[in-house]
Amino acid sequence: MTRDEAKNDRDDMLIDGPDYQNPNPNLISDGFNASYLKVYYSKLFPYSDMFKWMSYGNDGKHPGCDSSYFGRRELSFTLDNDIYLRFQSFKTASELESAVKEKCPFKIDIGPVYSVDPSKRHAYAQTGDNVFKPVERELIFDIDMTDYDDIRYCCSGADVCRDCWPLMTAAIKIIDIALRDDFGFNHILWVFSGRRGVHCWVCDAKARRLTNEQRAAIAEYFHVYKGNENSQKKVSLGGPGLHPFLVRSYTEVLKKFFEETYLSSQMLLSSEERYEKVLEMIPDESITSELRGKWQDNRRSSKEDTNVFRWGQLKHVLQSGKQKGQGLRKCVEEIVFSYTYPRLDSEVTKHMNHLLKAPFCVHPKTGRVCVPIDPNNCEDFDPTNVPTLSQLLEELNRESLGEDVETDLERTSLGKSIALFRSSFLQPLLKSCKEELEDSYNKKLQQSKDSLTW
């Protein structure tokens, strides 16, 4: 890891690299305070829930469970001064809690479950065998708003607002529906990254056991965006007909979002500079000249929004009967996909050994907690209204601090997020895990009985 890479906001993942020290420590925003973080870890961080999630029923309470499972999970701590501690592992929730309270990490990242305890990997390396390797890892997705900078005009970089955040809402809807309907996954957790994007954790047993090749195939299934700021054509939609997944994405989410929300909120056709970017996606010069002439003239009888009016003209020209070429008709869909389709960091999805920030961490730049997002009501999620560390401490201090964590949680705005995590994700997941453990255990018992039968 280079010094420049280490300075970047590490919202997404970590890979192997040497420890690094930031020459400018304590560069934190008003929403983040290291001393407040100690109180947060002491009073509000849901250690028990995190342990239950990452144990997947292997909590030692069932004879068929794997008691070493949680202890083979890698956790990474980012400490003050950007010191990275990789391959941390813990046997119990109390061990995890003690370590977090002691080290007070600015960020916690979750890695895979390895074949052996990752903290003891060097001992196994001396054997000469390739014993230390990842064996399970959630299927993960990382969507970052900075990847949309070429098509949003309200913000750039790490900044987000209510006008551009709906891009994340559209991404959640499209990816979540496909994961459930096309791949049959059920236990999916969406989490706000704390600043500028969203993370997705697919936690079904069959998802956790996917190989790198299978993960890459799923990433490729979602891969449509191929452009950059210098590309005229931003997407590749395949042959003459759209894939059923893309048809559903367009008809159920993207078309309405683009035409009713994003077109006007970003004023995509309001100025020559902006509409020229759209015209560049049309390969027929005669059509672009016709539209350019109409828009430069700027005369219209309707009081309709300029962006909506011009989009109607563009659609009429491209989709009218005289346009015989399927490619030109497809330009409308290509423009919509270019501006609104999810832009995934595929490398995060493809490899088991990538780290991803843990839910309920506090983002050190914004002070906001990485809270779950309900995919069924994701349009109601407001990133500017997510609890901050200082806000939570104020809520706790309105009354004297109690001894009971649950009581403290209920007195803060974080309580609703914890309740959502438990009811919509954790409880159904653990129920499924216990059923799977019970079924596997009973099968092994039956096989043992059968082997003793003469």
Automatic annotation (TrEMBL):
Keywords: DNA replication, DNA-directed RNA polymerase, Metal-binding, Nucleotidyltransferase, Primosome, Transcription, Transferase, Zinc. It comes from the Eukaryota. Residues 1-20 are annotated as: Disordered. GO terms for biological process: DNA replication, synthesis of primer. CDD domains: AE_Prim_S (cd04860). Residues 1-13 have a biased composition (Basic and acidic residues). Belongs to the eukaryotic-type primase small subunit family. This is DNA primase.
